[in-house]
Amino acid sequence: MRYRNPAKRINDFKEVALGLTEKQAVKEADRCLQCKKPHCVAGCPVEIDIPKFISFVKEKDYLGLKKLESLIYCLPYAAEYVHKKTNVRVIVY
User: Fold this and answer.
1) Which of helix, strand or coil describes residue 54?
2) Quick check: helix, strand or coil at residue 6?
3) What is the CA radius of gyration of the chain?
C-alpha cells in the first residue's frame, strides 16, 4: 500500500494511507480463503460482509462494490471510521 510522504503529512490530519491500485487490490483479494465460517466478519465490530466485498474486488465488479460500500457508509460515523482503519476500503485509481 502506498502512503503519503511524511514530510508533507506532518502539517495536516489527512489520511496517511493512499489505498491500493487496482492490480494490488485484486492480488490481495486473491489471497482470501473464502472460509465457511469467516472470522473476519465475526471480528469486525460492525460485521461487514468482508468475503462479499472481496469477491466484488476479485471479479472487478465495481458497481456491486459501490452498492455494498454505500450500505457500509450508511452506518454511523464510528462504523465508517472503523471501516477505514481496518483497511477494508479499496480505493482504485
Assistant:
1) helix
2) helix
3) 14
